[in-house]
Amino acid sequence: MDIRDLTADDLDAVLDLRKRAFGPISASDVATFRKMVNPTLAAGRYLGAFDGGRLAAATRLRPFTQWWHGKPQPMSGIAGVTVSPEDRGRGVGRLIMRATIERAAELGDAVSALYPATTPIYRSLGYEHAGAQHLMSLPAEALRTIRQTKDVKLRRMGPDDAAEVIALLHRVHGAARASGPISYGEDIWRLWLEDEDDFLYLADDGFVIYRWDGPDIEVDTLVAGSVETARALWSLVGTSSSIAKRVKAVVTPDDPVLWLLRERSKETADQVRWMFRVIDLDAAVTRRGYSAAVRGAAVVRVEDPLRAGNAGVWRLEFDGGSGAATRLDTGSQQGEADAPALSANGFSALYAGVPTATLRRGGLMTGDERHDEVLDAAFHARPYMLDYF
Ligand SMILES: CC(C)(COP(=O)(O)OP(=O)(O)OC[C@H]1O[C@@H](n2cnc3c(N)ncnc32)[C@H](O)[C@@H]1OP(=O)(O)O)[C@@H](O)C(=O)NCCC(=O)NCCS
Question: What does the pLDDT look like over 261-320, one tens digit per residue?
């Protein structure tokens, strides 16, 4: 198998692969797909594995921004992992995923995430379960009880608001010290904001994207930076309650709407889990945000057979909201031979806020427990995503 960058000439073969993996694709979805992936081809973000001239597998590295404790950093979102049916179960998936991780590093992304259709392949390459997309379903009537307490100016938005949406996400996720959510680049936001079946409203510190889904309303994204805007946007959705039966909404794990509802007896919650990997430990630790209240240091030993630059003993220091990683010489006194050991999966999960107690009982961390409280305090997070990709 040869692995190389895909070009526009390969897109028909890619679409055939996608159909065999995920089912039929409508003509309008094919058109959107082509618009969406064209820029990624030139950027080295679409890889193919070829058996002679035949495309056997593909992966896409989507250029996202991801916030960790309110601080944005570039992230490779891995999507469209597809192996042709006749090549499955022979190691092709793992082969192209290894090249994909290498490519993410070359592109300068220190972290990566993906929504797994199956766990073992990604886990074997250092990705670990870390966060989720949270889906809430509740009677539409429940939202009608949310009253506006202040007049909030809302206006309809469209593709020309893409830059404003991105700027707003930076303001709101930063102020909320959010962990996990992502943003697309302006080109992709323009595509999302031109869908004529979606209803889009923008406030100074929030926006909502929602649509009909049969007899129900589906809230794709609702972001609000203040209680007034949260009330205004949710009650706007609630005005559909005379027709809509239920509202299905993507929410954050501690979404304020759950505290704005008058009644909370009939909602249900579901999760779509995503996995996460630290690609470049040093850069990832520096680029993450931390609680300014945490000050301390910890030493960890990381095992990462795939990314040699991550392997070794590291001193992690946290101070005033910043973090830094310094490699220590193994064997020296400073190297702390008894430092707690984490696999690549373990370190990735720790970075994403999985508590050390879980990592130890889940077999992802062993050894000295001295630094556990500092690690837990520094990396504390309940990561989520509003977007599925
Ligand atoms: C999932 C997929 C990408 C795996 O590719 P592949 O070439 O068949 O995988 P590999 O042969 O490299 O196997 C890698 C590991 O994944 C495991 N694996 C492969 N397919 C699996 C499946 N359907 N369910 C569970 N595990 C699976 C293999 O057993 C192997 O683990 P092991 O070495 O511990 O046994 C491929 O089957 C595919 O394209 N499926 C349809 C589309 C899809 O689900 N894409 C993933 C989207 S996130």
Answer: 998 888 999 999 999 999 999 999 999 999 999 999 999 999 999 999 999 999 999 999
Closest residue by Cα to atom 7, ligand 1, is 93
- Residue 61 Cα to ligand 1 middle (Å): 18
In a domain, 117, yes or no: no
Q: What is the CATH number of the domain that holds 373?
A: 3.30.1050.10
Q: Is 151 part of any domain?
A: yes
- Residue 59 alpha carbon to ligand 1 centre in Å: 13
Residue 267 lies in a domain: no
Task: Outline where DSSP puts E strands in the chain.
Answer: 2-5, 46-51, 54-68, 71-83, 111-114, 128-139, 155-156, 182-183, 199-203, 206-213, 216-224, 246-251, 268-278, 296-303, 312-319, 322-328, 341-343, 365-366
Per the structure, the count of domains in the chain is 3
For ligand 1, whether the C-beta of 94 sits within 6 Å is yes
pLDDT digits (tens, 9 = 90+) for 164-180: 999 999 999 999 999 99
Residue nearest to atom 10 of ligand 1 (CA): 91
Same domain, yes or no: 238 and 284: no
- Nearest ligand 1 atom, CA 115: 48
| Pair (152, 254) in one structural domain | yes
246 and 295 both lie in a single domain: no
Position 121 in a domain = no
Q: Which domain holds residue 231?
A: 146-260
Task: Classify burial at 195, counting beta carbons within 10 Å of its beta carbon; exposed 0-12, middle 13-18, buried 19 or more.
Answer: middle
The secondary structure of residue 384, as a DSSP letter, is B
Q: Candidates 88, 97, 101, 115: which one to mutate for ligand 1, based on the most atoms within 8 Å of Cβ?
A: 88
Asked whether 153 and 300 are in contact (CB, 8 A), the reply is: no
116 Cα–ligand 1 center, Å: 10
pTM over 0.90: yes
Nearest 5°: the CA angle 284, 285, 287 is 65
Task: Tell me: do 190 and 254 sit in the same domain.
Answer: yes
Which has the minimum average pLDDT: 46-50, 131-135, 248-252, 266-270? 266-270
- Asked if residue 320 and residue 352 are part of one domain, the reply reads yes
Gap from CA of 238 to ligand 1 centroid (Å): 42
What confidence tier does 22 reach under pLDDT thresholds 50, 70, 90?
very high
Atom of ligand 1 nearest to the CA of 82: 39
